[in-house]
Amino acid sequence: MTQRRILVTSALPYANGDIHLGHLVEYIQTDVWVRFQKLRGNECIYLCADDTHGTAIMMSAQRTGCSEEEWIARVQDEHERDFAGFHIEFDNYGSTNSPENYELCKKFWQAFRDSGLVKEQEVTQLFDDEQGVFLADRFVQGTCPKCGKEDQYGDSCDGCGATYNARDLIDPRSTLTGSTPSVKSADHLFIQIEQLHDFLEEWTQSGDHLQSEVANYLKGHFLHEPLLDWDISRPAPYFGFEIPDAPGNYWFVWFDAPIGYMASTQQYCEKTGDDFERWWKDPDTEVHHFIGKDITYFHTLFWPAMLKVAGFNLPTKVHIHGFLTVDGRKMSKRDGTFVRAATYLNHLDPEYLRYFYCSKLGNGVDDLDLNLEDFIAKVNSDLVGKVVNLASRTAKFISEIGLSAVYPDDGGLFESAAAVGDQIADAYENCEFNKAMRLIMELADQANPFVENSQPWVLRKDPEKQQELQDVCTVALNLFRQLVVYLSPVLPELTGKANELFDVEISNWSDSQSPITGSQISKFKHMMQRVEIKDVEAMIDETKDEAAAEETQSAANESQDSGQPLKDEPLAEECTIDDFVKVDLRVARIVAAQHVEGADRLLQLTLSLGGDETRNVFAGIKSAYEPEELIGRLVVCVANLQPRKMRFGVSEGMITAAGPGGSDVFLLAPDSGAQPGQRVH
RNA sequence: GGGCCCGUAGCUCAGUGGUUAGAGCAGGGGACUCAUAAUCCCUUGGUCGGAGGUUCGAAUCCUUCCGGGCCUACCA
Questions:
Q1: Residues A425 and A475 in one domain
Q2: What is the pLDDT of residues A529-566, one digit of tens each?
Q3: Residue A672 Cβ < 7 Å to strand B
Q4: Is the CB of A228 under 7 A from strand B?
Q5: Same structural domain for residues A208 and A66?
Q6: What is the complex's ipTM, to 2 decimals?
């Protein structure tokens, strides 16, 4: 077989949040595919980078009070650490905010200019005057102009499904500052991608570049009509690259993001002395992109168009996968299923997830479900029970004598399993990892009965049968090793442990085709722990805790409470705890409430402190509450206040309330469960 | 409303025209004791979402309906 040259990428994670289990579907899928290609002896490199530009990054940096550069450096550290934790092995991991990327962006841009596809057009957008930024749709909220539903984003309404221009929102406000945006115009640069329509039609609909359902989707949603011009620039302020021939304007993040694949290649080449053009200009090189279905059209329309215009290799294939659900539902912070990569690693082995995802991943765009029960069952019964068990039940019998010098008769087991290798390889190649895992487990199911029938634990007691014992274990261990070769793209750590056991490196797929003999066996060490339910539960619990903490945090951040009340009524002089306990605050129930004849602001309340204890209280809350709505409510009253004689009778206490007065009066209410008469401490 | 995908055993899924529909897990029974309560043997379990049609023959092809998921919007 001739060696292929293959360049592989995963989508660039956005430098605005943590890696979570949903992201990992893609990185694990890609990493497994790359490891498989390398194992097959192909020249293959895996490239990725952080996607660092755009308004959202600016906002995050601003919120945390650091520069954008500091922010993205911090996020990138975390991303790389998470990936390493899951054994995702990049040949280079770059950043779109790199000099290499800027240089490449300029080349692409010049190509577009030269091709005459760039045009200038005025765009009218909402503008946040306080922040001095244009507001993308997702940064504007307001009332839907069609159905009147409140708090809708600037592009569409999730109530009635209407789409509209953000300027049509009723009572729009900026989600950044809460202020009312103004309308402002700016010149944007557009790429007239319609001029490449024929090329895109041809590229997407022919060959094997896309999964068939994706090709259909593009045809049905985009290619059936003229393609809209692509708005490629953003006016300052914007965190990104300034466009050289349009000062004050920046390339839109989706322009420089995919170019980041190439910038990362560039860095790889500088690092290794390789030749960049070999990877992006040589037609013999295959380029494979792995992405999620959410960013399909950037990678199947814009990106091929960009590459075409700039004269680089077009993608050989764009592999598109679905989203992750957990226990059949969308990941949710509140359910504890929005699990961050780092949180997972606090409790569970990354190889579990790698295997589980592979056992589920096909080559379609279907969503993938992480059923936690299924997860535990699969890992324990397949990996621990079937595969690792083969080694753990035989290795120690021959740790002193090693493997037989000649591979014994095994009834054709090794050979037939070797013959399945091609099928397994095809499955990996076609991204049908679920099929590959199924085929491998079928082989494991044949290996254990062999051990059972050969009864090495009986043989070892008979000095006459030591040769037979060695032969049986030689077979079992070779079958085990064969499975590990097949699984090694998925389970690098297990592969490493098998390498130690045999003291022979698994370095090529062909290692599955011939048994090893005559060598020593290292002392057996456990290779994989069983998954414990409690560990999964602990991971979910930790995720829930994170979500709760985050909610508290964001409530504190987002409320952006005004400082006015404190200014209007500054804090009182410091008091001691003794001063405080003089005031006896009690929970009370309002058992009667009525208007007071002749009083402008007062209501007369009867408070019950439980039992027979009641108080008659006049409260200045008439303009804020109706008597009827108060009856039955729990309030907090000052129970030991000196009674005061008023025009309408004696008031035997006060009820507590906040607010400046008038209609802005807000009664304090205890949480449910409190009982009248209980003291407030 | 439209597009795509899916519906097979309790669960996860093979099987895309050809004997009586399979596997793993779970359930039941037995065995073994080398192994991480792992393993092995036996076994229960299915009107292949429903209904029509094509065919000598349909889980598989066609039509239609029902149910689920994803995408999308008056446009295919």
A1: yes
A2: 999 989 999 999 999 898 888 777 766 655 455 555 66
A3: no
A4: no
A5: yes
A6: 0.89
